[in-house]
Amino acid sequence: MSISITVKLFAAYQDAYGQPELTLELPTTATVAAVRDRLIAEHPELAPWRDLTRFGVNLQFVEPDTPLQSGDEVVLIPPVSGG
Q: Would the pTM count as exceeding 0.85?
């Protein structure tokens, strides 16, 4: 059994994937951290952001161990700078 989620990508994550969002199929036991770890496994250049990324699910900031449900919208927010 699996769940389907949408992942919104920003900054380094969007640069790595070349698109603003992904749809992922994950195990029903998946957490937000599992999404981050999968993206880093697919794009190892994202590894420096592992411990700096904040997470949101359905427009709420959450902790990495937050469980996911089918239909959730996950946002990975690395630190950004600009002027």
A: yes
* Closest to 23 measured CA to CA, from 71, 61, 63: 71
Ramachandran category for residue 28: left, alpha or beta (phi over 0 → left; psi -120 to 50 → alpha): alpha
Contacts by residues 36-40 (CB-CB < 8 Å, ≥ 24 positions apart): 36/64, 36/76, 39/7, 39/13, 39/76
Report pLDDT for 79.
80
CA distances in angstroms from 74 to 1, 49, 82, listed in the order given: 20, 16, 24
**Cα separation, 12 vs 58, whole angstroms:** 21
Alpha helices in 1-83 (DSSP H): 11-17, 32-42
